[in-house]
Specification:
The complex is a heterodimer. Chain A is mainly alpha-helical. Chain A contains 14 helices and two strands; from the N terminus they run H-H-H-H-H-H-H-E-E-H-H-H-H-H-H-H. Chain A has helices at about 5-40, 50-55, 60-75, 80-100, 105-130, 135-150, 165-170, 180-195, 200-210, 210-215, 220-245, 260-270, 280-300, 305-340, and strands spanning about 175, 175-180. In chain B, helix 4 runs antiparallel to helix 14, helix 5 crosses helix 12 and helix 13 packs across helix 14 (about 290-305). The chains are: A mainly alpha, B mainly alpha. Chains A and B meet through helix 6, helix 12 and helix 14 of A and helix 7, helix 13 and helix 15 of B.
């Protein structure tokens, strides 16, 4: 007992420090990236639309990465969010076209509910069939995309379908602050508060860090998994709504590959792929960072084609760094434990 | 963690004894693999009799040509999934190898040299995956998502929007020519057969292969019984890289087109085929034949739907539905057999 206690204590405080370090590291990286880009081209930040564009552009990735992170924290994965986003985008565009004068809040609710419903299907399949979520959501990735392809076919959303007020949401500002930034901040704050301060949120971490213990403790594994997938689906649905408001177009291929970007953002943001750890703030920063890279590269003179390679380097780098820090921490803790 | 794995291993062993208590014909027939093979046969008969043009050799030519990359890459993937790992980077390795191949050819290198360099390049990506997974100790899912992005990005970055298309026509036409003129099999079928046999022997008839199963059931127990766990996993990632890059060269020649996006999204198709073929994503269970049959079933479904005029668009919905259906059926079957067993033991106890 006495020999392990100091080691554990040292570990715990270090975990806190490391988590903070991840967020700090991301903030420093983002600042460095933005500074370098701005030195290259002052307009990147100091122009009429520059800084707003910088803050608005990562919104979609932040939203879907938050949902993905919640699922990964429970030791699952959701590969279907790109397909869910596509269905939400098209259904909402379709509603605007076919039901003239439909109130915007109704469409927004429909988009989010559709996402939540598709997430519920994922969750039910994972929770009740006891099949790995990787397999289930790989299946629904294809199935949802297939529904989109069958339904949409060669059609696409035309910007004339979308009411101007809705399109404005994607581009307009209130008191100089983009609506989308406000949306992203609100969602991040709500999800972050939920995951850090609410019992239901902490239970998701508990389930992910030790499913057997969580079940024995009576946390209700099935309900937690359902909640995680419903949230992920709803956020992907919201992402589809944002996509529609920004681009005012969309076909059957919208959101292809977003699932991997979201996983990447979560991993870079410090979420362990084996579940149980990671913060929502880190994920939001990770998503912001990855989205900003693609904005900044062309300005820095790097062809945007290299963006994916750089994202790859950051994923591999982030997880390797985590691992190395973990090993050194364990070693130090063991040494302290032995010394004590 | 370890106790759970150990319990899973014991359960699997117990299940093994139970199944071996049954007669041979039941053991042979009541398997996921035989269900998939039956589905293929059924689909073949239905399509052969009802779908126009299905019975022509050309149909099978194009079917094998289109599905060859998936059928080849699922061989090492099956073994990787069997150990409980996963390799999401195969599509990107395909593209990366095609890019190296194309660039070397464009720089005036002879084709065989370019092909060898490309395959070695892909093998090195496999080494990178394997080292990160086994030596650094990272989860394979995270590592290969990273290398998926990295090597797709390098391929797209190197080639840009350009495409290298001026490969010698005698080579490209050989790659997509039939084995016997007018026959249903393209030359690549030979490669599929040879590699399939090689991987089947490796998995089912060598100590290495038994080690693969053992690692999937419990890496700890496997290590205690003398399996070199990390070496095995590393070798599998390298094999996966080598096969994916060889497919990259083939794919580039078949379409006479080296572009950075070659093979993107293939990783999910490969995994779908393997899982549909009854290989457990948790490792330790499945056969190579099952995985191949899964790949073949998807290919044949795709071709049939295309010929039936449903359009090639519907393939993704069919793939997804087939995958979910297969796991739903397996799950329900497991549930029923568990209930029957509890009932049987309850009766036995009562008697």
């Amino acid at each position: 007992m006495t020999t392990t206690a100091p080691g554990l204590d040292a570990g715990r405080s270090l975990v806190g420090r490391l988590v903070r370090a991840r967020e700090l590291a991301l903030i420093i990286l983002i600042l460095a990236l933005v500074t370098a880009t701005t030195i290259n081209q002052p307009g990147f930040v100091f122009s009429d639309g520059g800084w707003r564009e910088l803050l608005r552009q990562p919104t979609i990735l932040i939203l879907i990465a938050l949902g993905e992170a919640i699922v990964i924290i429970t030791r699952n994965i959701d590969l279907s969010i790109g397909s869910i986003l596509c269905l939400s985008t098209y259904l909402c565009g379709f509603l605007f076209y076919n039901v003239p004068g439909i109130p915007i809040p109704v469409v927004v609710a429909v988009g989010i509910l559709l996402g939540a419903f598709l997430g519920l299907i994922n969750g039910l399949l994972v929770a009740f069939l006891k099949v790995p979520s990787l397999v289930i959501t790989l299946g629904t990735l294809y199935a949802y995309r297939g529904i989109a392809i069958l339904w949409i076919g060669p059609h696409f959303i035309r910007s004339s379908w979308i009411p101007p007020e809705y399109r404005q949401f994607g581009t307009a500002n209130i008191f100089g602050v983009p609506y989308l930034l406000i949306l992203a901040v609100i969602v991040v704050l709500i999800v972050g508060w939920f995951m850090t301060s609410r019992r239901a949120g902490r239970n998701l971490y508990a389930l992910g860090s030790n499913p057997e213990a969580a079940t024995l403790f009576g946390l209700g594994e099935r309900r937690l998994i359902l909640n995680a997938f419903i949230t992920s689906g709803a956020l992907a649905g919201l992402g589809g709504l944002v996509y529609l408001s920004i681009f005012a177009t969309g076909d059957a291929q919208v959101g292809t590959g977003y699932e991997l970007e979201a996983v990447a953002a979560a991993v870079v943001g410090g979420v362990a792929i084996v579940g149980g750890s990671g913060t929502i703030w880190g994920v939001a920063l990770g998503a912001f960072f990855l989205a900003t890279i693609s904005n900044a590269l062309p300005v820095l003179g790097v062809p945007s084609l290299w963006q994916q390679a750089i994202v790859g380097i950051f994923i591999v780098g982030a997880i390797s760094l985590d691992r190395i820090l973990f090993i050194t921490r364990t070693r130090r803790a063991t040494r302290k434990g032995v010394a004590a | 963690m370890s106790t759970v794995e150990a319990t899973a291993a014991t359960e699997a062993a117990a299940a093994n004894y139970r199944t071996h208590g049954r007669p041979l014909w039941r053991r042979m027939l009541l398997r996921t693999e035989s269900a998939i093979v039956a589905a293929i046969v059924l689909l073949f008969i239905v399509a052969y009799t009802t779908v126009p043009y299905f019975a022509q050799p050309y149909t099978f030519m194009t079917m094998f040509l289109n599905s060859a990359p998936i059928l080849l890459m699922l061989l090492p993937m099956t073994l990787i999934i069997m150990t409980g790992d996963i390799d999401l980077s195969v599509g990107s390795i395909l593209g990366f190898s095609g890019t190296i191949f194309g660039l070397m050819f464009q720089a005036g290198g002879p084709l065989p040299v370019a092909a060898v360099v490309a395959v070695i390049g892909g093998g090195l990506v496999g080494v990178l995956n394997g080292v990160l997974v086994t030596q650094v100790g990272l989860p394979s899912l995270a590592v290969t998502i990273g290398t998926l992005a990295l090597f797709r990005g390098i391929s797209v970055g190197l080639l840009g929007t350009a495409a290298i298309t001026d490969f010698p026509s005698e080579v490209t036409s050989f790659v997509s020519s039939p084995l016997i003129p007018g026959g249903p099999f393209p030359v690549v079928v030979v490669a599929i057969l040879v590699l399939a046999i090689a991987f089947a022997v490796l998995l089912h008839f060598t100590p290495f292969g038994r080690g693969v199963y053992a690692i999937g059931l419990s890496a700890e127990a496997a290590a205690f019984s003398g399996v070199r766990v990390n070496r095995t996993r590393l070798i599998l990632f390298v094999l996966s890289g080598l096969v994916a890059s060889a497919v990259g060269v083939y794919f580039t020649l078949q379409y006479s087109n080296a572009i950075g996006t070659n093979g993107s999204g293939f990783e999910l198709q490969v995994i779908t085929a393997v899982v549909l073929g009854g290989v457990s994503i948790w490792g330790g269970r499945g056969t190579l034949l099952g995985a191949l049959a899964g790949g073949l079933l998807i290919a044949m479904l795709n071709k049939t739907l295309q010929l039936a005029g449903v359009g090639s668009d519907s393939i993704s919905i069919v793939t997804g539905a087939a995958l979910i259906f297969s796991v739903v059926v397996a799950s329900i079957a497991g549930f029923i057999s568990r209930r029957r067993r509890t009932k049987a033991s309850a009766t036995a106890a009562g008697a």
